[in-house]
Amino acid sequence: MCKMTFEELSGEYSTERMDTVTKALEEVLSSALPQGCITVGVYEAAKSLNVDPDNVVLCILATDDEDVKDVALQIHFTLIQAFCCENDINILRVNNTRRLAEILGGGGKQGGEPLHGPVGAHH
């Protein structure tokens, strides 16, 4: 399992690598979305993880500055991260929820609510 946060990268090389990761993530999400292989939201992702964890290949934990103050959401994130680690599911944390929502077709909102929480990509 690979767990990487962008804070772990540094220097000029890190900018190139982050751009590459960003482009790859955009491509994966854009191609998985029309196939119905994306689950968005804390509760929806938890259900998907519980029902068939072997079918989940990536968990994206999306937060913004306001989410850091939400203790309940942070507890959910911690539990989801632990579950993903136990089941060898890759985890990626992102802090640009607006861009992620744009990729997922929500234009900054998902179902009328701001996008936050996990995004699961599955087969």
Automatic annotation (TrEMBL):
Domain Ribosomal protein eL8/eL30/eS12/Gadd45: where?
A: 24-105
An example of a Gene Ontology cellular component annotation for this protein is:
nucleus
Biological process, per Gene Ontology? DNA damage response; regulation of cell cycle
Database matches in Pfam families: Ribosomal_L7Ae (PF01248)
- This protein's major location comes to nucleus
Q: Which PANTHER family match?
A: GROWTH ARREST AND DNA DAMAGE-INDUCIBLE PROTEIN GADD45, GROWTH ARREST AND DNA DAMAGE-INDUCIBLE PROTEIN GADD45 ALPHA
Similarity section: Belongs to the GADD45 family.
What is this protein identified as? Growth arrest and DNA damage-inducible protein GADD45 alpha
